[in-house]
Amino acid sequence: xxxxxxxxxxxxxxxxxxxxxxxxxxxxxxxxxxxxxxxxxxxxxxxxxxxxxxxxxxxxxxxxxxxxxxxxxxxxxxxxxxxxxxxxxxxxxxxxxxxxxxxxxxxxxxxxxxxxxxxxxxxxxxxxxxxxxxxxxxxxxxxxxxxxxxxxxxxxxxxxxxxxxxxxxxxxxxxxxxxxxxxxxxxxxxxxxxxxxxxxxxxxxxxxxxxxxxxxxxxxxxxxxxxxxxxxxxxxxxxxxxxxxxxxxxxxxxxxxxxxxxxxxxxxxxxxxxxxxxxxxxxxxxxxxxxxxxxxxxxxxxxxxxxxxxxxxxxxxxxxxxxxxxxxxxxxxxxxxxxxxxxxxxxxxxxxxxxxxxxxxxxxxxxxxxxxxxxxxxxxxxxxxxxxxxxxxxxxxxxxxxxxxxxxxxxxxxxxxxxxxxxxxxxxxxxxxxxxxxx
Length: 439
Prior knowledge:
The termini are far apart. The protein has helices at 3-16, 28-34, 43-57, 66-70, 78-82, 84-87, 94-121, 128-147, 154-162, 176-181, 200-213, 227-239, 243-246, 254-257, 272-282, 304-322, 350-354, 405-412, 420-426; strands spanning 189-194, 218-222, 262-265, 286-290, 325-331, 357-363, 371-380, 388-394, 399-402. With 439 residues, it is α/β, with parallel strands linked by helices.
């Protein structure tokens, strides 16, 4: 890609930023801070960018109406300005072109410095050390203008982080043992894995409402669960009512209708690239994706393994670059005799490699009981050495509570299920919490 194409792409991206759908994606402050008119090799492109800077200073919109008016009397043809938008392409990746422009400018400066040095080397009156110093000065100036490699001293890096507001742990789940041992933080990719019907979606919906209570802006991408089923579960959790009393009463959805901090997306966001654009547009802090079997990508791959590896790396990178926390519901792909591990996650081992935390839900699936006892097996965690966390899933209210190994073992070994009162008495984690009886 030559410098002229790069320069026109940057100018086209700036023009597109005034259009609806691009305003929240393109960060003009970042572009105008990093780019100067001198970085453009083409004189017409430099003149156009200077006109854009003038409009920016006056806080005027930058579009195909205001820009030609600003450049009236100059050397730029108005048709060249109109054609710029097509140079940016359908997908606006301004950071890619921004880095290319900075790199192109740096290379031109370096080439000019070496050309001058080659001429000076033939002059015996100029000291070699002076020539080297001038080349070094050019390299140093390039570094100051943003062409560095991103390396920073540890002391400066720590100082920069300490100046930021502390947002290590995003929200509490309400499950004591889980909150005590595992932190859900920005930049994390978290897998919630398990066999069908074990409560993976219900667990993420509980997390979603807990994030909302903490004031965290959330995006829930549902690729599997029907809307009415999801709304019923959310209402049951929020109102602490029986699911059977809600699923035939659509008026009950009004309790969750006024929730502005939760945004939903469906099959329009089934590709990881579409999720990326949604995160940039809506500035989400936490993303829940249900589930990995129906997730796709625009990237062409030769095999399914390559596809899932690409998506795992993409989501992990997305969490880090956008400073968000991503929860991904995954399905298990194993026989009953296989041992539970990261390699059993449906798709490929890429999910396990890229994830910061991986939880596997296991237990005895019961459809007719009120309480289902589940073990959250910790397959991977960066900040905890715990192996398992025991929870109780109250199926009627779609709510999770603390449990312990004794209750789980009794249930999975086929013993009679403890009553609500007995379960509450034996639960050492929830003695200060009233058991939510369904009326």
